[in-house]
From TrEMBL:
Region listing for Disordered, in residue ranges: 1-21
Domain Oxidoreductase molybdopterin-binding residues, every copy: 32-176
Pfam families: Oxidored_molyb
Coiled coil (UniProt feature): none
CDD domains: arch_bact_SO_family_Moco
Listed name of the protein: DMSO/TMAO reductase YedYZ molybdopterin-dependent catalytic subunit
Length: 196
C-alpha cells in the first residue's frame, strides 16, 4: 500500500430508498385541478364499515391534540425530501374509541381522488391528517388545507385535500392503484407499479 493511500471515499450521505434522489425542492404533482376548499365548509368524515360516521369541522380538528412529526417523504417519481416538518392530528386520535373490525381504509379527497391503505398503516403513530407544513398553513398545491401524511409509503398514499376515510373489511384499490400503481407502495421495496 502506498503511503497516504486511503482507498475510495464512501458517501456519508443519508440512506435513501432504491432509485431515489435527494431534492431540496418540493415538486408539485397533481392529476387534475387544485381544489380550493374554504375552511368554513371543510370537514373530515371517518366512516366505519357499518356506515357509522364520525365528523370533524376545521375548528373541531384544530381543537384535537396536535402532533409535529418531522419525516422524510419519498415520491414515486424518484425524489426524496428529508426532514420535512408538519403539524396535524394523528390517525390514532381519530380512531380512538371507533369500534371496527375493518382491515383496510380508503382515503377520499376533495376533487374525487382516492387511495387505499391497510388500516394498520394508519395506526401506531405512523399517519396524520396535517394542516401545517414548515411552520405555515399547508399550501393548496401541496394538499391544503389538509392532507393525509403516511411517510413510510410512497407519497401518493399521503392523499392531498383529504376529506375523509372509509374503513373497509376488504381492500379496494384507489385512483392511482387502478391506474397501475402498486397496491401498497413501500419505497424501501421499490413498489412503484403493480407487479413490483
Amino acid at each position: 500500500m502506498s503511503p497516504g493511500f486511503q482507498g475510495r471515499r464512501r458517501s456519508s450521505g443519508p440512506a435513501l430508498p432504491p432509485g431515489q434522489y435527494l431534492t431540496e425542492d418540493f415538486p408539485v404533482l397533481s392529476a387534475g385541478p387544485t381544489p380550493r376548499v374554504p375552511l368554513d365548509t371543510w370537514e373530515f368524515v371517518l366512516t366505519t364499515e357499518t356506515g357509522t360516521e364520525f365528523r370533524w369541522t376545521w375548528d373541531e380538528m384544530a381543537g384535537l391534540p396536535q402532533e409535529s412529526p418531522t419525516v422524510d417523504i419519498h415520491c414515486v417519481t424518484h425524489w426524496t425530501k428529508l426532514g420535512t416538518s408538519w403539524q396535524g392530528v394523528s390517525l390514532d386520535t381519530l380512531l380512538e374509541g371507533v369500534d371496527t373490525t375493518a382491515r383496510f381504509a380508503l382515503a377520499h379527497s376533495y376533487g374525487g381522488y382516492t387511495t387505499n391503505l391497510p388500516l394498520d398503516d394508519l395506526r401506531g403513530g405512523r399517519a396524520w391528517v396535517v394542516h401545517t407544513y414548515e411552520g405555515g398553513p399547508l399550501p393548496a398545491e401541496h394538499g391544503g388545507p389538509a392532507r393525509l401524511l403516511v411517510p413510510h409509503l410512497y407519497f401518493w398514499k399521503s392523499a392531498k385535500w383529504v376529506r375523509g376515510i372509509r374503513l373497509l373489511v376488504d381492500d379496494h384499490p384507489g385512483f392511482w392503484e387502478t391506474a397501475g400503481y402498486h397496491d401498497y407502495g413501500d419505497p424501501w421495496r421499490e413498489q412503484r407499479y403493480a407487479g413490483d
